[in-house]
């Protein structure tokens, strides 16, 4: 039953394809090329931003050396207050 | 840079071959989704000499009719452009499947523009019902793949397909009678 219904509806959908305008390929190539260039630009910008972030981090790290232990604060001189 | 120029040339050539072979079917798919009618009222009649109409609608008018599928064309153009942009990264994926996926995604995302029927075959259906019906019966995509493409469960796809069949079956009977020819094996 389901199969017969599907066959009928299938026949409704089938048939000759519509006419395709001849300039479709050119249009799609142009649009796709723009999209590709935009994607490449975005990728390059992201790469440049991450490189910049790494460079900034390196400069900061070399400058402030956060891995160095902070010098211990000197103990208060004995005899004060006691 | 020379490398990139050669790659672009190759991509454009391959893409041109692909579009030449696939665009008719893809535009048909798009027109079924957008329910834009095109000159195939009856699939058994040839579009060039059928429809004996009034004197002012000759072959020229018919040809114009065939060229007008603005919404389907827009969908297809969008899908093809994305396929072109991703051509070098297609790897194992078939460009036809990729373009079809892009087209269906685009249609689903802009479904609110296509809710109202434009007079084509699937006009009585809601947009998501058209998508399921077209993928299952026009494209013969298996149920599981349709569910994965649309992000739905298989049960839901079955239910939507069932409802769409219920709506469309009487129309098929009205056009072809109770015993349609066996077009698919």
Automatic annotation (TrEMBL), chain A:
Q: Which residues are listed as membrane-spanning? A: 45-63
> At the top level of its lineage, which domain of life is listed?
Bacteria
What keywords appear on the UniProt entry?
A: Membrane, Transmembrane, Transmembrane helix
The entry's protein name is Uncharacterized protein
Q: Which organism is it from?
A: Streptomyces tardus
UniProtKB/TrEMBL annotation, chain B:
Segments of this protein annotated with the region Disordered: 37-61
Highest taxon of source: Bacteria
What GO biological process terms does the UniProt entry carry, in alphabetical order? Answer: DNA-templated transcription initiation
Any one Gene Ontology molecular-function term assigned to this protein's record: DNA-binding transcription factor activity
Give every RNA polymerase sigma-70 region domain span: 124-166
Protein's name in the database: RNA polymerase sigma-70 region 4 domain-containing protein
Classification of source organism: Bacteria, Bacillati, Actinomycetota, Actinomycetes, Kitasatosporales
């Amino acid at each position: 039953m389901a199969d017969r219904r599907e066959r009928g509806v299938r026949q409704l959908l089938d048939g000759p394809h519509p006419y395709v305008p001849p300039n479709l390929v050119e249009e799609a190539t142009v649009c796709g090329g723009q999209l590709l260039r935009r994607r490449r630009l975005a990728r390059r910008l992201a790469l440049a931003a991450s490189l910049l972030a790494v460079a900034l981090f390196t400069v900061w790290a070399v400058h402030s050396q956060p891995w160095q232990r902070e010098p211990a604060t000197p103990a208060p001189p004995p005899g004060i207050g006691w | 840079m020379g490398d990139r120029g050669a790659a672009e040339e190759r991509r454009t050539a391959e893409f041109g071959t692909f579009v030449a072979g696939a665009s008719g079917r893809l535009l048909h798919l798009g027109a079924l989704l957008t329910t834009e009618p095109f000159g195939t009222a009856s699939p058994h009649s040839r579009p060039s000499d059928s429809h004996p109409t009034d004197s002012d609608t000759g072959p020229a008018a018919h040809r114009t009719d065939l060229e007008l599928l603005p919404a389907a064309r827009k969908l297809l153009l969008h899908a093809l452009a994305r396929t072109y942009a991703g051509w070098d990264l297609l790897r194992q994926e078939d460009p036809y499947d990729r373009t079809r996926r892009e087209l269906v995604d685009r249609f689903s995302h802009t479904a609110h523009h296509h809710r109202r029927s434009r007079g084509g075959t699937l006009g009585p259906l809601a947009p998501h019902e058209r998508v399921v019906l077209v993928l299952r019966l026009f494209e013969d995509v298996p149920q599981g793949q349709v569910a994965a493409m649309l992000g739905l469960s298989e049960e839901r796809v079955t239910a939507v397909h069932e409802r769409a069949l219920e709506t469309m079956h009487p129309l098929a009977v009205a056009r072809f009678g109770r015993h349609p020819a066996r077009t698919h094996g």
